[in-house]
Write a structure and sequence with these properties.
Elements lengths: L1 H14 L3 H7 L6 H9 L9 E5 L5 H8 L6 E5 L3 H14 L3 E4 L12 E6 L5 E9 L2 E7 H11 L1 E12 L9 H10 L1 E8 L15 E7 L7 E7 L11 E3 L1 H4 E2 L4 E2 L12 E2 L6 E4 L11 E2 L7 E4 L4 E2 L2 E2 L10 E2 L9 E2 L2 E7 L12 E6 L3 E3 L3 E5 L11 H11 L2 H10 L7 H5 L2 E2 L2 H10 L8 H12 L6
Parallel strand pairs: 1-2, 1-4, 2-3, 4-7, 8-10, 17-24
Antiparallel strand pairs: 5-6, 7-9, 8-9, 10-11, 12-13, 14-26, 15-25, 16-20, 17-20, 18-19, 21-24, 22-23, 22-25
The chain binds S-adenosylmethionine.
Length: about 475
Protein backbone atom coordinates (compact mmCIF):
# COMPACT_ATOMS: atom_id res chain seq x y z
CA UNK A 1 0.00 0.00 0.00
CA UNK A 2 2.78 2.45 0.95
CA UNK A 3 4.67 1.55 -2.24
CA UNK A 4 1.55 2.41 -4.19
CA UNK A 5 1.32 5.86 -2.73
CA UNK A 6 5.08 6.51 -3.19
CA UNK A 7 4.63 5.50 -6.85
CA UNK A 8 1.54 7.67 -7.09
CA UNK A 9 3.38 10.73 -5.77
CA UNK A 10 6.17 10.04 -8.29
CA UNK A 11 3.65 9.79 -11.15
CA UNK A 12 1.93 13.00 -10.06
CA UNK A 13 5.31 14.75 -9.85
CA UNK A 14 6.26 13.45 -13.33
CA UNK A 15 2.98 14.68 -14.80
CA UNK A 16 3.29 18.13 -13.27
CA UNK A 17 6.93 18.92 -14.13
CA UNK A 18 7.43 22.31 -15.71
CA UNK A 19 9.12 21.66 -19.08
CA UNK A 20 11.69 24.43 -18.79
CA UNK A 21 12.80 23.49 -15.30
CA UNK A 22 12.66 19.80 -16.17
CA UNK A 23 15.23 20.38 -18.92
CA UNK A 24 17.35 22.77 -16.89
CA UNK A 25 17.59 20.59 -13.77
CA UNK A 26 17.19 17.26 -15.55
CA UNK A 27 14.14 16.11 -13.70
CA UNK A 28 13.84 12.60 -15.07
CA UNK A 29 12.08 10.71 -12.34
CA UNK A 30 12.79 7.06 -11.59
CA UNK A 31 9.90 4.65 -12.20
CA UNK A 32 9.00 2.31 -9.33
CA UNK A 33 10.39 -0.94 -10.88
CA UNK A 34 13.83 0.66 -11.34
CA UNK A 35 13.70 2.22 -7.83
CA UNK A 36 13.00 -1.25 -6.38
CA UNK A 37 15.90 -2.78 -8.27
CA UNK A 38 18.25 -0.03 -7.10
CA UNK A 39 17.26 -0.64 -3.46
CA UNK A 40 17.51 -4.41 -3.96
CA UNK A 41 21.28 -3.92 -4.38
CA UNK A 42 21.74 -2.73 -0.79
CA UNK A 43 22.81 -5.43 1.64
CA UNK A 44 19.90 -6.15 4.01
CA UNK A 45 20.67 -4.74 7.44
CA UNK A 46 18.88 -5.52 10.70
CA UNK A 47 19.99 -2.39 12.50
CA UNK A 48 18.67 1.11 11.66
CA UNK A 49 20.58 2.87 8.88
CA UNK A 50 21.15 6.50 7.93
CA UNK A 51 19.97 7.02 4.35
CA UNK A 52 20.91 9.91 2.04
CA UNK A 53 19.05 10.67 -1.22
CA UNK A 54 20.83 13.23 -3.41
CA UNK A 55 18.68 15.13 -5.92
CA UNK A 56 15.65 13.37 -4.48
CA UNK A 57 12.93 14.54 -6.92
CA UNK A 58 9.66 13.10 -5.59
CA UNK A 59 11.69 11.19 -2.96
CA UNK A 60 11.01 7.79 -4.51
CA UNK A 61 14.51 6.36 -4.04
CA UNK A 62 14.93 7.42 -0.42
CA UNK A 63 11.40 6.27 0.35
CA UNK A 64 11.81 2.79 -1.14
CA UNK A 65 15.17 2.48 0.64
CA UNK A 66 13.55 3.51 3.96
CA UNK A 67 10.63 1.16 3.40
CA UNK A 68 13.08 -1.75 3.27
CA UNK A 69 15.23 -0.55 6.18
CA UNK A 70 14.91 -1.48 9.86
CA UNK A 71 12.66 0.69 11.99
CA UNK A 72 14.52 3.58 13.58
CA UNK A 73 16.27 4.39 10.27
CA UNK A 74 16.52 8.02 9.14
CA UNK A 75 16.56 9.76 5.74
CA UNK A 76 18.16 12.99 4.60
CA UNK A 77 17.05 14.14 1.13
CA UNK A 78 18.57 17.03 -0.82
CA UNK A 79 16.56 18.57 -3.65
CA UNK A 80 16.93 22.04 -5.09
CA UNK A 81 13.43 22.31 -6.62
CA UNK A 82 11.06 23.56 -3.90
CA UNK A 83 7.98 21.79 -5.30
CA UNK A 84 9.79 18.48 -5.58
CA UNK A 85 11.39 18.96 -2.16
CA UNK A 86 7.86 19.22 -0.71
CA UNK A 87 6.85 16.04 -2.53
CA UNK A 88 9.96 14.29 -1.19
CA UNK A 89 8.85 15.21 2.30
CA UNK A 90 5.36 13.76 1.70
CA UNK A 91 6.76 10.50 0.23
CA UNK A 92 9.41 10.01 2.87
CA UNK A 93 7.10 10.71 5.80
CA UNK A 94 4.91 7.80 4.70
CA UNK A 95 7.67 5.32 5.48
CA UNK A 96 10.01 6.93 7.94
CA UNK A 97 9.69 8.81 11.21
CA UNK A 98 13.00 10.63 10.96
CA UNK A 99 13.08 12.70 7.76
CA UNK A 100 15.07 15.80 6.86
CA UNK A 101 14.53 17.38 3.46
CA UNK A 102 17.05 20.05 2.51
CA UNK A 103 15.76 22.35 -0.21
CA UNK A 104 19.11 23.42 -1.63
CA UNK A 105 21.77 22.49 -4.16
CA UNK A 106 23.78 19.38 -3.36
CA UNK A 107 26.89 21.49 -3.98
CA UNK A 108 25.98 23.94 -1.21
CA UNK A 109 25.14 21.45 1.54
CA UNK A 110 28.02 20.28 3.76
CA UNK A 111 27.56 16.53 4.30
CA UNK A 112 29.51 14.56 6.89
CA UNK A 113 30.74 11.04 6.04
CA UNK A 114 28.12 9.40 8.22
CA UNK A 115 25.64 7.72 5.88
CA UNK A 116 25.17 3.95 5.68
CA UNK A 117 23.10 4.03 2.50
CA UNK A 118 23.37 6.67 -0.21
CA UNK A 119 21.04 6.46 -3.18
CA UNK A 120 20.78 8.74 -6.18
CA UNK A 121 19.58 9.25 -9.70
CA UNK A 122 21.44 12.49 -10.40
CA UNK A 123 21.21 14.89 -13.34
CA UNK A 124 23.42 13.67 -16.21
CA UNK A 125 24.42 16.94 -17.90
CA UNK A 126 27.92 17.73 -19.16
CA UNK A 127 29.66 20.59 -17.38
CA UNK A 128 32.85 22.47 -18.02
CA UNK A 129 35.72 20.60 -16.32
CA UNK A 130 35.54 21.16 -12.56
CA UNK A 131 37.89 20.03 -9.84
CA UNK A 132 36.38 18.62 -6.64
CA UNK A 133 38.80 18.48 -3.69
CA UNK A 134 38.65 15.21 -1.69
CA UNK A 135 40.76 13.66 1.05
CA UNK A 136 42.35 11.44 -1.62
CA UNK A 137 43.25 14.41 -3.84
CA UNK A 138 41.48 16.48 -6.47
CA UNK A 139 39.11 14.77 -8.90
CA UNK A 140 38.40 16.33 -12.27
CA UNK A 141 34.80 15.88 -13.37
CA UNK A 142 33.18 16.91 -16.62
CA UNK A 143 29.65 15.89 -15.84
CA UNK A 144 27.01 16.48 -13.18
CA UNK A 145 26.45 12.82 -12.47
CA UNK A 146 30.08 12.16 -11.62
CA UNK A 147 30.13 15.32 -9.49
CA UNK A 148 27.09 13.99 -7.57
CA UNK A 149 28.77 10.60 -7.24
CA UNK A 150 31.93 12.12 -5.78
CA UNK A 151 29.76 13.84 -3.15
CA UNK A 152 27.75 10.65 -2.56
CA UNK A 153 30.87 8.54 -2.02
CA UNK A 154 32.41 11.13 0.27
CA UNK A 155 29.25 11.04 2.40
CA UNK A 156 29.59 7.31 3.11
CA UNK A 157 30.43 6.08 6.60
CA UNK A 158 32.92 3.17 6.85
CA UNK A 159 31.14 0.12 5.45
CA UNK A 160 28.45 2.34 3.88
CA UNK A 161 26.94 1.50 0.49
CA UNK A 162 25.99 3.73 -2.42
CA UNK A 163 23.67 2.81 -5.30
CA UNK A 164 23.35 5.14 -8.29
CA UNK A 165 21.26 5.17 -11.44
CA UNK A 166 23.57 6.66 -14.03
CA UNK A 167 24.53 6.47 -17.71
CA UNK A 168 27.14 3.91 -18.72
CA UNK A 169 29.50 6.52 -20.18
CA UNK A 170 31.80 6.78 -17.10
CA UNK A 171 33.10 3.27 -17.75
CA UNK A 172 35.25 4.16 -20.74
CA UNK A 173 36.84 7.07 -22.59
CA UNK A 174 39.23 9.79 -21.61
CA UNK A 175 36.78 12.24 -20.00
CA UNK A 176 35.99 9.97 -17.08
CA UNK A 177 39.43 8.53 -16.44
CA UNK A 178 40.17 10.75 -13.43
CA UNK A 179 36.84 9.84 -11.88
CA UNK A 180 37.30 6.10 -12.52
CA UNK A 181 40.73 6.09 -10.93
CA UNK A 182 39.52 8.04 -7.92
CA UNK A 183 36.42 5.92 -7.41
CA UNK A 184 38.22 2.58 -7.70
CA UNK A 185 40.78 3.86 -5.22
CA UNK A 186 38.19 5.19 -2.76
CA UNK A 187 35.74 2.31 -2.58
CA UNK A 188 34.87 -1.20 -3.55
CA UNK A 189 33.07 -1.72 -6.84
CA UNK A 190 30.38 -4.22 -5.86
CA UNK A 191 27.81 -4.43 -8.64
CA UNK A 192 27.02 -3.25 -12.16
CA UNK A 193 23.70 -3.82 -13.88
CA UNK A 194 23.39 -2.44 -17.40
CA UNK A 195 19.91 -2.18 -18.85
CA UNK A 196 19.90 -3.88 -22.23
CA UNK A 197 17.21 -1.83 -23.87
CA UNK A 198 17.01 1.92 -23.63
CA UNK A 199 13.30 2.05 -24.21
CA UNK A 200 11.90 -0.26 -21.56
CA UNK A 201 12.71 1.77 -18.47
CA UNK A 202 12.13 5.49 -17.95
CA UNK A 203 9.43 5.00 -20.58
CA UNK A 204 7.63 8.21 -19.70
CA UNK A 205 10.84 10.22 -19.40
CA UNK A 206 12.33 9.92 -22.93
CA UNK A 207 15.78 8.93 -21.64
CA UNK A 208 17.86 7.85 -24.61
CA UNK A 209 21.20 7.03 -23.01
CA UNK A 210 22.17 3.56 -21.93
CA UNK A 211 21.40 3.49 -18.20
CA UNK A 212 22.85 1.31 -15.47
CA UNK A 213 22.81 0.68 -11.75
CA UNK A 214 26.13 1.04 -9.96
CA UNK A 215 26.79 -0.15 -6.43
CA UNK A 216 29.94 0.79 -4.56
CA UNK A 217 30.80 0.58 -0.89
CA UNK A 218 33.25 2.12 1.52
CA UNK A 219 35.38 -0.92 2.29
CA UNK A 220 38.22 -2.88 0.68
CA UNK A 221 37.51 -4.11 -2.85
CA UNK A 222 35.22 -7.12 -2.86
CA UNK A 223 36.76 -10.24 -4.45
CA UNK A 224 34.04 -10.58 -7.07
CA UNK A 225 31.94 -7.88 -8.70
CA UNK A 226 28.37 -8.83 -9.56
CA UNK A 227 27.72 -8.00 -13.21
CA UNK A 228 24.35 -8.13 -14.92
CA UNK A 229 25.25 -7.18 -18.47
CA UNK A 230 21.74 -7.21 -19.87
CA UNK A 231 19.41 -6.27 -17.04
CA UNK A 232 15.68 -5.94 -17.48
CA UNK A 233 13.63 -3.62 -15.25
CA UNK A 234 10.74 -6.08 -15.44
CA UNK A 235 11.82 -8.55 -12.74
CA UNK A 236 13.92 -8.50 -9.57
CA UNK A 237 17.66 -8.45 -10.22
CA UNK A 238 18.07 -11.54 -8.05
CA UNK A 239 16.16 -13.52 -10.70
CA UNK A 240 18.37 -12.36 -13.58
CA UNK A 241 21.55 -14.00 -14.88
CA UNK A 242 24.59 -12.47 -13.20
CA UNK A 243 28.33 -13.10 -13.49
CA UNK A 244 30.64 -12.83 -10.52
CA UNK A 245 33.87 -11.40 -11.91
CA UNK A 246 37.13 -10.26 -10.31
CA UNK A 247 37.61 -6.50 -10.76
CA UNK A 248 40.94 -7.19 -12.47
CA UNK A 249 39.16 -9.07 -15.24
CA UNK A 250 36.90 -6.08 -15.86
CA UNK A 251 39.43 -3.24 -15.89
CA UNK A 252 41.92 -2.45 -18.63
CA UNK A 253 45.11 -0.41 -18.67
CA UNK A 254 46.22 2.44 -16.44
CA UNK A 255 43.13 4.45 -17.45
CA UNK A 256 41.03 1.77 -15.68
CA UNK A 257 38.57 1.36 -18.55
CA UNK A 258 35.83 -1.00 -17.37
CA UNK A 259 34.17 -3.70 -19.42
CA UNK A 260 30.77 -5.24 -18.70
CA UNK A 261 31.87 -8.79 -19.42
CA UNK A 262 35.02 -10.77 -19.03
CA UNK A 263 37.07 -10.64 -22.19
CA UNK A 264 36.48 -13.44 -24.72
CA UNK A 265 39.10 -16.10 -23.88
CA UNK A 266 40.18 -16.17 -27.55
CA UNK A 267 41.56 -12.64 -27.10
CA UNK A 268 43.47 -13.29 -23.90
CA UNK A 269 46.83 -13.98 -25.58
CA UNK A 270 46.94 -10.65 -27.39
CA UNK A 271 48.66 -7.49 -26.26
CA UNK A 272 46.90 -4.16 -26.62
CA UNK A 273 47.10 -2.07 -29.76
CA UNK A 274 49.36 0.44 -28.03
CA UNK A 275 51.59 -2.33 -26.62
CA UNK A 276 52.04 -3.55 -30.21
CA UNK A 277 53.56 -0.18 -31.06
CA UNK A 278 50.47 1.22 -32.75
CA UNK A 279 48.86 4.54 -31.91
CA UNK A 280 45.41 5.99 -32.54
CA UNK A 281 45.10 9.69 -33.29
CA UNK A 282 42.20 11.86 -34.30
CA UNK A 283 42.08 13.53 -37.73
CA UNK A 284 43.41 17.04 -37.37
CA UNK A 285 41.16 19.10 -39.62
CA UNK A 286 38.18 20.75 -37.94
CA UNK A 287 36.42 21.92 -41.08
CA UNK A 288 34.54 24.90 -39.69
CA UNK A 289 37.77 26.41 -38.38
CA UNK A 290 39.49 25.84 -41.71
CA UNK A 291 36.79 26.74 -44.24
CA UNK A 292 39.24 28.97 -46.11
CA UNK A 293 41.51 26.06 -47.10
CA UNK A 294 38.78 23.65 -48.29
CA UNK A 295 38.80 23.26 -52.05
CA UNK A 296 36.63 21.39 -54.52
CA UNK A 297 39.46 21.15 -57.05
CA UNK A 298 42.95 19.71 -56.79
CA UNK A 299 45.51 22.50 -56.71
CA UNK A 300 49.18 21.79 -57.50
CA UNK A 301 50.39 22.45 -53.95
CA UNK A 302 47.22 21.18 -52.24
CA UNK A 303 46.43 17.81 -50.59
CA UNK A 304 43.62 15.26 -50.74
CA UNK A 305 41.15 15.57 -47.89
CA UNK A 306 39.47 12.46 -46.45
CA UNK A 307 36.09 12.48 -44.70
CA UNK A 308 33.95 9.59 -43.55
CA UNK A 309 32.25 9.98 -46.97
CA UNK A 310 35.48 8.60 -48.46
CA UNK A 311 35.09 5.32 -46.55
CA UNK A 312 33.89 2.88 -49.20
CA UNK A 313 33.59 -0.37 -47.28
CA UNK A 314 37.02 -1.57 -46.22
CA UNK A 315 38.99 0.94 -48.30
CA UNK A 316 39.23 4.72 -48.55
CA UNK A 317 38.54 6.15 -52.01
CA UNK A 318 39.44 9.57 -53.29
CA UNK A 319 37.93 11.67 -54.68
CA UNK A 320 34.32 10.62 -54.17
CA UNK A 321 31.13 12.22 -55.34
CA UNK A 322 29.72 13.92 -52.24
CA UNK A 323 28.85 17.41 -51.08
CA UNK A 324 32.13 17.95 -49.21
CA UNK A 325 35.28 19.47 -50.65
CA UNK A 326 37.77 16.76 -51.51
CA UNK A 327 40.97 18.82 -51.27
CA UNK A 328 42.69 21.44 -49.18
CA UNK A 329 44.85 24.20 -50.64
CA UNK A 330 48.58 24.56 -49.92
CA UNK A 331 47.61 27.04 -47.16
CA UNK A 332 46.83 24.00 -44.98
CA UNK A 333 50.58 23.27 -44.68
CA UNK A 334 51.05 25.81 -41.93
CA UNK A 335 48.19 24.48 -39.78
CA UNK A 336 49.51 21.16 -38.46
CA UNK A 337 46.78 19.18 -40.18
CA UNK A 338 48.75 17.44 -42.96
CA UNK A 339 49.75 13.78 -42.46
CA UNK A 340 52.64 12.01 -44.19
CA UNK A 341 52.02 9.78 -47.24
CA UNK A 342 51.81 6.06 -46.52
CA UNK A 343 49.58 3.30 -45.18
CA UNK A 344 46.91 3.82 -42.50
CA UNK A 345 43.78 2.35 -41.07
CA UNK A 346 41.06 5.01 -40.68
CA UNK A 347 38.21 4.51 -38.24
CA UNK A 348 34.99 6.48 -38.17
CA UNK A 349 34.57 8.16 -34.75
CA UNK A 350 30.80 7.84 -34.94
CA UNK A 351 28.53 4.94 -35.66
CA UNK A 352 24.79 4.84 -36.05
CA UNK A 353 22.65 2.57 -33.85
CA UNK A 354 21.21 0.90 -36.93
CA UNK A 355 24.66 0.04 -38.37
CA UNK A 356 25.66 -3.63 -38.09
CA UNK A 357 29.03 -2.79 -36.61
CA UNK A 358 30.21 -0.14 -34.21
CA UNK A 359 33.71 0.03 -35.65
CA UNK A 360 33.87 1.06 -39.26
CA UNK A 361 37.51 0.79 -40.44
CA UNK A 362 38.94 1.47 -43.90
CA UNK A 363 42.44 1.02 -45.32
CA UNK A 364 44.23 3.97 -46.87
CA UNK A 365 47.37 3.96 -48.95
CA UNK A 366 48.26 7.48 -49.97
CA UNK A 367 51.19 8.28 -52.28
CA UNK A 368 51.02 11.91 -51.23
CA UNK A 369 50.69 13.81 -47.97
CA UNK A 370 47.01 14.16 -47.08
CA UNK A 371 44.54 15.53 -44.53
CA UNK A 372 41.96 13.63 -42.43
CA UNK A 373 38.80 15.23 -41.08
CA UNK A 374 38.38 15.36 -37.32
CA UNK A 375 35.51 12.84 -37.41
CA UNK A 376 37.99 10.12 -38.37
CA UNK A 377 40.56 8.43 -36.16
CA UNK A 378 43.66 7.06 -37.84
CA UNK A 379 45.97 4.29 -36.68
CA UNK A 380 49.72 4.71 -37.28
CA UNK A 381 52.94 3.55 -35.62
CA UNK A 382 54.13 6.85 -34.19
CA UNK A 383 53.19 8.66 -31.01
CA UNK A 384 50.73 11.35 -29.99
CA UNK A 385 53.24 13.91 -31.28
CA UNK A 386 54.57 12.25 -34.41
CA UNK A 387 52.64 10.38 -37.08
CA UNK A 388 54.49 7.49 -38.71
CA UNK A 389 52.60 5.54 -41.39
CA UNK A 390 52.07 1.80 -41.11
CA UNK A 391 53.67 -0.89 -43.18
CA UNK A 392 51.18 -1.47 -46.00
CA UNK A 393 50.36 -5.09 -45.08
CA UNK A 394 49.93 -4.12 -41.41
CA UNK A 395 47.47 -1.39 -42.39
CA UNK A 396 45.49 -3.89 -44.47
CA UNK A 397 45.56 -6.57 -41.77
CA UNK A 398 44.54 -4.12 -39.06
CA UNK A 399 41.56 -3.01 -41.17
CA UNK A 400 40.42 -6.64 -41.34
CA UNK A 401 41.02 -7.16 -37.61
CA UNK A 402 38.99 -4.08 -36.68
CA UNK A 403 36.20 -5.25 -39.00
CA UNK A 404 35.79 -8.65 -37.34
CA UNK A 405 32.83 -9.75 -35.26
CA UNK A 406 35.00 -10.61 -32.24
CA UNK A 407 36.34 -7.04 -32.13
CA UNK A 408 32.89 -5.56 -32.61
CA UNK A 409 31.68 -7.57 -29.62
CA UNK A 410 34.74 -6.52 -27.63
CA UNK A 411 33.99 -2.87 -28.29
CA UNK A 412 30.33 -3.17 -27.32
CA UNK A 413 31.39 -4.63 -23.98
CA UNK A 414 33.62 -1.64 -23.38
CA UNK A 415 31.37 1.16 -24.61
CA UNK A 416 27.64 1.69 -24.65
CA UNK A 417 28.00 4.76 -26.79
CA UNK A 418 27.97 5.05 -30.56
CA UNK A 419 31.13 7.16 -30.42
CA UNK A 420 34.41 5.37 -30.96
CA UNK A 421 37.09 6.74 -28.64
CA UNK A 422 40.77 6.72 -29.48
CA UNK A 423 41.46 5.93 -25.77
CA UNK A 424 39.36 2.76 -25.94
CA UNK A 425 40.82 1.68 -29.29
CA UNK A 426 44.33 1.88 -27.84
CA UNK A 427 43.35 -0.71 -25.21
CA UNK A 428 41.93 -3.07 -27.80
CA UNK A 429 43.53 -6.53 -28.09
CA UNK A 430 45.66 -6.62 -31.22
CA UNK A 431 47.75 -9.27 -33.02
CA UNK A 432 51.45 -8.63 -33.65
CA UNK A 433 52.48 -6.82 -36.81
CA UNK A 434 53.61 -10.06 -38.54
CA UNK A 435 50.24 -11.63 -37.65
CA UNK A 436 48.39 -8.62 -39.07
CA UNK A 437 50.46 -8.87 -42.25
CA UNK A 438 49.65 -12.59 -42.46
CA UNK A 439 45.95 -11.77 -42.11
CA UNK A 440 46.26 -9.26 -44.96
CA UNK A 441 47.81 -12.02 -47.09
CA UNK A 442 44.70 -14.17 -46.64
CA UNK A 443 42.10 -11.75 -47.99
CA UNK A 444 42.22 -8.95 -50.53
CA UNK A 445 40.47 -5.79 -49.34
CA UNK A 446 39.69 -4.83 -52.92
CA UNK A 447 37.52 -7.95 -53.22
CA UNK A 448 35.35 -6.50 -50.41
CA UNK A 449 35.29 -9.69 -48.31
CA UNK A 450 32.05 -10.09 -46.37
CA UNK A 451 31.75 -10.56 -42.60
CA UNK A 452 31.75 -14.34 -42.85
CA UNK A 453 35.00 -14.40 -44.85
CA UNK A 454 36.70 -11.96 -42.47
CA UNK A 455 35.71 -14.01 -39.41
CA UNK A 456 36.71 -17.28 -41.09
CA UNK A 457 40.15 -15.89 -42.03
CA UNK A 458 40.72 -14.94 -38.41
CA UNK A 459 39.58 -18.31 -37.18
CA UNK A 460 41.97 -20.01 -39.58
CA UNK A 461 44.95 -17.82 -38.70
CA UNK A 462 44.54 -18.08 -34.93
CA UNK A 463 43.19 -21.65 -34.89
CA UNK A 464 40.05 -20.62 -33.04
CA UNK A 465 37.38 -23.20 -32.60
CA UNK A 466 34.05 -22.40 -34.24
CA UNK A 467 32.03 -20.01 -32.06
CA UNK A 468 29.42 -21.90 -30.07
C1 LIG B 1 17.22 12.70 -12.65
S1 LIG B 1 16.25 13.53 -11.47
C2 LIG B 1 15.95 12.23 -10.34
C3 LIG B 1 15.03 12.54 -9.23
C4 LIG B 1 14.83 11.43 -8.22
N1 LIG B 1 16.06 11.12 -7.53
C5 LIG B 1 14.33 10.17 -8.89
O1 LIG B 1 15.09 9.22 -8.94
O2 LIG B 1 13.20 10.17 -9.37
C6 LIG B 1 17.44 14.57 -10.70
C7 LIG B 1 16.91 15.44 -9.62
O3 LIG B 1 17.99 16.22 -9.11
C8 LIG B 1 17.54 17.55 -8.88
N2 LIG B 1 18.72 18.41 -8.97
C9 LIG B 1 19.37 18.82 -10.10
N3 LIG B 1 20.46 19.53 -9.77
C10 LIG B 1 20.50 19.54 -8.40
C11 LIG B 1 21.40 20.12 -7.46
N4 LIG B 1 22.48 20.78 -7.85
N5 LIG B 1 21.13 19.96 -6.16
C12 LIG B 1 20.05 19.26 -5.75
N6 LIG B 1 19.16 18.71 -6.58
C13 LIG B 1 19.39 18.85 -7.90
C14 LIG B 1 16.51 17.80 -9.95
O4 LIG B 1 15.61 18.84 -9.59
C15 LIG B 1 15.84 16.44 -10.03
O5 LIG B 1 14.77 16.33 -9.13
Amino acid sequence: MTSDSIAQIRDEAAASLQPERQQQWEQFLTPMPVARQAVELFTPCERPVRILDLGSGSGILGAVAAEHAASGSSVVAVEQDDRLAAMSETSLCQVCGDVTVINDSVFDVPLEPRFDRVILNPPYKKTSPTVIPTSAGDVKVTNLYTAFLVIAIQSLAEGGECVAIIPRSWMNGDYFKDFRKWMLHECSLDALAVYGSRQEHFKDMSILQEIMLLKVSKRPQTKKVMVIADASPMMPLAQQPADMVALKALTMGSDRILRIRQQDARLSGFKTLSDEGLWVSTGKLVWFRNRDVLSSVAEPDGHPLYWSDNQCGLVMRHPVDCDREQWVTGEADGRHVVLPAGGYCLVNRFSAKEQNRRIYASYLSSDVDFVADNKLNYVHQGTSRKTIPLDDMVARGLTLWLSSTIIDEWYRQVSGSTQINATDLRQMPCPSKPQLAALAGMLSLNDMPNQHLIDEAMRGLFSWAKAS
